[in-house]
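REQUEST ID: PR-0412
SUBMITTED BY: lab tech R.K.
PRIORITY: routine
TASK: structure prediction, single protein chain
INPUT:
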Amino acid sequence: MQNNIRAQIALDEHRTISADVVSRSEAGARLKVEDAFAVPDTFVLTVSGAESFLVCNVTTRLPGEIGVRFT
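STATUS: complete
OUTPUT:
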């Protein structure tokens, strides 16, 4: 997965929040989001152009940004 690419955070089966992958490691990522506190503690992340998805747990919340660990 490249950095600074578009992604979608699934809130439920019908609603998503847009995000940008700012940085990524094997264990997790840092995501830029409009409202960090609207993101659930656990969610599915779908990255633009990728055919797979990642299950994430939020580890850090800052204004406009979250840190996540992949599960």
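NOTES: The beta strands are 5-10, 16-24, 28-33, 42-47, 53-62, 65-70.
REVIEWED BY: pending
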